[in-house]
Amino acid sequence: MKLYFGENLKSLRKQNDLTQEMLAEFLGVSFQAVSKWERGESYPDIEMLSAVASFFGTTTDLLLGIDKISNEKKIRSYIERYDALQRTDSPKALEMMKNAVHEFPGDYRLLIRYFEILIKTKGGFENGSVILSEVQSVYDRIDNFCTDDSIRIWAQRLMATYCKSMSLVDESGLGLDDMEKILHKMPLMYNSGDFAATYLYPPGEKHREACRCAVDELMYLFGCTVTNYCSDFAANAFEEKIKAIQTLLAVLDCVYTDGNYRKSWVHVIYNYGNLANLYFQLGDMEESRKNLKICAELSKRYDSQPQTVVSNTALFNKTEFTKKKQGKTYCMRMRGKMLHAYNFTEEFRQSREFAEILKMLD
Question: Is 8 strand, coil or helix?
Fold first, then answer.
């Protein structure tokens, strides 16, 4: 359990215009002891703790930050429950976060989650200008007053996405111009901490680790970008989409030569499935089955791997990658896509080859 004695002691000392030497003299201890207390390197014994609290006219609980510890525990509980609820029961998650923000109005970790679920649950224009006004109000509060860059950028990304969706609705009051204003406030990839770490650390293991993390992130973002790029093609532009996906997979194979795709497993598995779907729509049954089989094999391989895998490539030699915990396995996800999401005919789904591929996902 984290105690806040050092922070609170330093704050009280400064509020009373005392130096460490002056406080030490009043308490009958060395100024080095006071310095260690404030840095959290040591704590006074119980009798001295009472004396410090009495000196400042406060209680030992407040001095130790017991209330702050209790509040932090409640806040963390709200966040954990929200993470568990927001995908399965949006209305319940919204109500919970509304209560959380009411209880802790100054905590932006709660406010950003309320903002996220508010947009997801009631963000449509059919809810009228009241919701639009609240969305704007919450966003302005975070953007103008939150000092945590990660939370502000999270809010900007949510608001930009909201502006984009509302631009498609007549008389919504929001358009692509509003989205672009927010995008211009957000940092470029070049200014990200991931990239800066690749040239700021001096030579050594920390620098190499920063470079590996940046490559992993770049490849993951590359996969996301290709997916977004493909969405710009016409629905029947099958060949153009196939070329883009094949380029992505070829690059990932060049980087992850041992077949352990680390953070980009999701792009590899899903895109072999996408290729199978696209080839089927082109009428190339052989390529469709081939890519569907690769998709199933990769899903099975990923699910059967241990939680932590050691990479064996030029860039990631002998480094570990830990899989994220997930509710559904990739075999379960891809089985669902093959049965329901892809544009396969019922005849194809009833074929012996398709049944064999599904069996691989058992």
Answer: helix
Query: pLDDT tens digit string along 15-44?
Result: 888 899 988 888 888 889 899 988 888 888
Judged on CB neighbours under 10 Å (0-12, 13-18, 19+), 301 is middle
Q: DSSP states of 113-171 as a string?
A: HHHHHHHHHH-SGGG-HHHHHHHHHHHHHHHHH---HHHHHHHHHHHHHHHHHHTTSTT
Could you tell me the CA-to-CA distances from 270 to 121, 337, 338, 361 in Å, in that order? 27, 9, 11, 14
pLDDT for residue 159 is more than 90: yes
Write phi, then psi, for 322 (nearest 5 degrees): -105, 125
How many other C-beta atoms lie within 10 A of the C-beta of residue 291?
23
- Whole-structure pTM value: 0.72
> What tens digit of pLDDT does each residue of 297-333 get?
999 999 999 999 999 998 998 899 998 877 789 999 9
Q: State the Cα–Cα distance between residues 236 and 282, nearest whole angstrom.
A: 9
User: Contact at 8 Å (CB) between 347 and 337?
Assistant: no
- Identify the residue with better confidence: 299 or 88: 299
Q: Is the model's pLDDT at 3 over the cut of 70?
A: no
d(CA 338, CA 289): 11
- Alpha-carbon distance of 4 to 8, in angstroms, equals 6
Looking at the DSSP bridge assignments, the partners of residue 321 are 309
Q: Which amino acid is at 169?
A: V
User: d(Cα 27, Cα 53) in Å, to the nearest integer?
Assistant: 11
Minimal CA–CA distance to 18: which of 63, 56, 45? 56
Residue 269: closest CA among 301, 308, 229, 228: 301
Mean pLDDT value across residues 63-73: 75
